[in-house]
Amino acid sequence: MAGRGKSLISEIAYASIQGFKTIFLMQGAICKFTPSCSQYAREAIKKLPLHLAMIKITWRVLRCHPLSKGGFDPI
Amino acid sequence: MRGGTPCTDGVAVPHIIEFDFDFYLFNILILKGWLTNVNKNTLLAFVLIAFTVIFFNSDFWNRTILKRPVPANQSQQRAANAADNNDGHAETSAAAGGTANNITGTAEITAPSTAHAQGDSLYITDGDNDSALALLPPLVADTIVVETNRLIAAFTTQGARIISLKMKDYNHSGTRADEMIDLITDGNLGGAQLSINNESFDDRFFTVTGAAGHDLVFETKASDGRPLQKIFSFSDDTYRIGYTVRGDGVAGQKVTIGWAGGIGDAEGERNMPFGGNIDKRRAHYSDGYTVNHFEMRRRGVESPSGLFRWVGMSSKYFFVAVVADRMSDADIKIEARDVTVRPPNQRPSREVDIDYSVFYQFEAESSEVESWIYAGPGRIGEMSRHDMKFEKTLFPVLSWARHILWAGAWFPPLAEIILKILLFLYGLVKDYGFAIFFLTLLSKIVTFPMTQSSARSMNRMRELQPKIMALRQKHKSNPQKMNQEMMALYKAEGVNPLNPGCLPMFLQMPIFIALFVVLRKAIELRGASSFLLPWVSDLSQPEALFYLPGNGLPIYGANVALMPIIMAALTFFQQRQMMQDPNQKAMLYMMPIIMLVMFNSFPAGVVFYWTVSSALGLVQQKWLKPQPKSKPGPTATVTMATAGGGTTTVKAPVKKSGGGGSGKRKRR
Q1: What pTM was computed for the model?
Q2: Among candidates B55, B63, B8, which has minimal Cα distance to B338?
Q3: Is B458 in Cβ contact with A34 (below 8 Å)?
């Protein structure tokens, strides 16, 4: 049951990020990393405790700026 | 989020859901997520959200748990009361109109001939000609009407309270467009309350002892027999009403001044299912430098104490504050109570709303306590001229939003700057449609560096789409391998170096949100029409090309607006270009529909901004045709970490950045 709840939250997070892109007309932004930030968030929430996942996601987004090299960065 | 099931007439009325913008947005996101990946969990998430929405709008939640009282007969009675009050007010103002030029009454009242001399703007008239104004306290309450260039205020001699306060520059919208807005909805309470040492003077009869210059003096006897005066002073061109209490027994006592009558719900007549017209009242108090805001969701009392200067409340467009002469150690009492908003000829749009009564209690230092009242529009210039930080009540950041990256600190100034730019642009072009257009253009220019490279890499991505699809197919069973391959492809095609990444996307968001909030909240757009949008009569209201019969479609509403249709078409066009993933086919059709429904009930100004922004984004993208691939670029050596921990070195051509944007710039 716990696993299910977590993947539910992860889906919500993923959907939120995708939706924000559309609503705020920012579909152009493509992640520097693979997997992309939204997928990363989804995975992180699924796999890690919520607070750790939040920290990881925040850190990931902060690294995803124009000067970063990007790269393969799985959770 | 509030709502309720009105069943006043014994007829079942469908739930009318009122959303906060944030909540609404959230919902849309969930919808989109569902469409993007229809899997079990997402579906469950969606169902959960739907359930939540229904639950929080249900009787069970509103009545049983929150104990919001909306018995049918009571609300009807309240509506009737409100109607009576309105009639009463109409009469008062008629009296004002009728006697303004030939002032009748006794000598005391005709005294303000000085006011006439001073600009022919201020009239103090006796609304009831029959009453002889002796110095003996009358047994019947009398109504005194004062008119300035800005306000028509009606006072009752019972308690010397303001029972009606109409603004000459602001009329109701819709069917009552020829009626001035009355800031006081409940004339039984009114404004300018007074009690001394908890002894209320609000039911005591006063006599008018003087009306000299811009002042109106009421007098009564306190319980110890000593005289007590309430003096109101007006000025021609502001919304400030001076409020002085004078009496021998006042010094050293605890004086409470207040405004119990709440604040008018000017937009109550409008009937919108979504976000368009939430006219929540908020309470504010301040020490003159920082302003605290809050809203209460049900009846209750808040009583902060400390060093304060003013306490007030705001509706969507209007603001009332009780301001002390100096900062004092005060006890503030903010009382939330239910009011019923129900226009007589429409189905009830919202049954219960919260209105506030505010009181400011402090110890009087002398026998004369000076204070004043601001009651008027939430117009930034009008508010800031009093130097009380009233303007900070315009864009408060409330509840949970405050905790997101210190939003309370940076959001209000940002919104204020955007509002000032809007007003500046209006000053140049004298048309709010054009002003919004240029404001959107400006926001596009500000975010240009970010969107530019986004658009460019989006074009590259579109080009690469077939290859990506092929890769996906190939490595379906091995996502890690797929990721690596995709990375390699991006590197090889030079997508990443152009790409701004995800962070700038988040950095743009505050600007978008602030623009949205400003366009939705600015009183300047109230009733504003535009040359650019001839079919829109009011930029602060949803537009309507025509109306569907009856109540229209659920959620969509009865009005059919043009711009959301354009916008949906733009979204569709843009997404069709972008999307080649067949899994997202449903999205392609659903997202425009969601936007169409969502924006249909949004204020025309907001939709106009969004449409222009969307169109400009599309133009920007179109202008940047992907550069031919055959063009050899400089090669760069890129080191890539692989999952195995080793590194591979890939020689990849790097696309030159810059150029390509010239077309866009030429356009401007």
Answers
A1: 0.71
A2: B63
A3: no
